[in-house]
Amino acid sequence: MFSSLAIQAATPLYLTGEESIRLTAFNSATGVTLALRGRFLPARVSPVEQEPVIGPFSHELVPTTNRAASVRTEPLGEGWLLDWSVVAIAGAPAIGQCYAMVEVVRGNKNAIQALSVLGNGYVTINKRLGGPDVGWMDFLDGGGALRSIAGATPGAGAEISETVPTGARWELLAGVWTLTTSATVANRTPRIQLDDGTTQYYNASSQGVQAAGVSAIYAFGQGLGFQAIGADSRSIISVPTNLRMGAGHRWRTQTGLIQAGDQYSAIQYLVREWIEGA
Amino acid sequence: MVQCRTCGATYEPVLPDGMEYYHACPPLSFPELKDALDQGAVQLTPAQQKQLDAAKARDAAGAPKDGVPSQADIVLGSFVVERPDRRDENVVPARTRGDEPGIKAIGKGDPVPL
């Protein structure tokens, strides 16, 4: 039988009893529960104590869905952290939606000091994060979560504006909208603009105009060219390839000669999303 | 489905995939900006005002032809001016871990259920 009496720390995962293990999660998916599980071998600190046995531990964390940090800190006592893992036991987060970080920290209430990071990365129902042999994954690594989003339908005469949520990073892949123009005579020119929340850094126009009393469908996407509205009332606009937009950035329309009765509708777009972890 | 009290946009707060949707009001469109300026509800920045004055001077020097927008309208349509009382449901980034951050801007209040 393995004796833990007076042995030297065999791994760097020896805890003095003043340290705790901390799970931090940044999550956007609904209904997620994470479990931090592992095995711990308590130290035998006195000859009169019974030989300690390896015990499992399991601590659950229900992270918020707003991509802000959710934390659970648990003391384990004095001994050896033999192994650990984090897995989603409820919900169905995709890669890019639930990022977990496991650390050794000192203290477990106020004034917690992080001592070391044991591992970090995205977790799903099937993809665990675990150690001691851990695969590290940064916030912006991987293919991201593919999300098809129904945008807000603006009021009449207003423009489309979609904002990258706090804590998220987007790559805008493709999208569509419909513009129905009122009877007021004017040649509208829909443009797509990307901005940082204030200042635009991309501005592309549909190659042509949309007259009064017409309903037309506009598509945009990476790698596309431009196409003016044809007989089928469809138009194409290009957006940059591999451009990642930070939290607070927007994609929106700015329509030359838009009229008060013009209406944007049926807004749907596809993004890759990561947790920014900022 | 809900409707924003500030901008009138309609949206689903929870998308079909279960993800939360955080609405943020768009900047004023061209006709909205014209109305807001007429009503004194917004002010242009000094730089924008200078640009607009120059465009009006060009219009005064030579009236636009029929069907051609005025220089002032073209310039005004290029401005990005945020609407008064804009709502932004995105959360304020937490300064410390474990905080429960509020939304960035309440606007005219919670949206109206439709």
Question: What does it look like?
Answer:
The complex is a heterodimer of chains A (278) and B (114). Chain A has strands spanning 14-16, 19-27, 33-42, 55-61, 69-75, 78-90, 98-106, 113-122, 129-131, 145-150, 161-163, 168-180, 189-195, 200-205, 215-222, 234-239, 244-245, 250-256, 263-275. Chain A is mainly beta. Chain B is built from 3 helices and 5 strands. Chain B starts with a strand and ends with a strand. Helix content of chain B is 29%, strand content 13%. Chain B has 114 residues and is an alpha+beta fold. In chain B, a hairpin with a 6-residue loop joins strand 1 (2-3) and strand 2. In chain B, the strands form 2 sheets. In chain B, strands 2-1-5 form a 3-stranded antiparallel β-sheet, with no helix packed on it.
Using brief descriptors, characterize the structure shown:
heterodimer, A: 278 residues, mainly beta, six-stranded mixed beta sheet, five-stranded antiparallel beta sheet, 19 strands, B: 114 residues, alpha+beta, three-stranded antiparallel beta sheet, two-stranded antiparallel ribbon, 3 helices, elongated
Question: What does the secondary structure layout of this molecule look like, with pairings?
Answer:
The complex is a heterodimer of chains A (278) and B (114).
Chain A: E1 14-16, E2 19-27, E3 33-42, E4 55-61, E5 69-75, E6 78-90, E7 98-106, E8 113-122, E9 129-131, E10 145-150, E11 161-163, E12 168-180, E13 189-195, E14 200-205, E15 215-222, E16 234-239, E17 244-245, E18 250-256, E19 263-275
Parallel strand pairs in A: 15-16
Antiparallel strand pairs in A: 1-6, 2-5, 2-7, 3-4, 3-6, 6-9, 7-8, 10-19, 11-18, 12-15, 12-17, 12-19, 13-14, 13-18
Chain B: E1 2-3, E2 10-11, H1 30-38, H2 46-61, H3 71-78, E3 87-91, E4 103-106, E5 112-113
Antiparallel strand pairs in B: 1-2, 1-5, 3-4
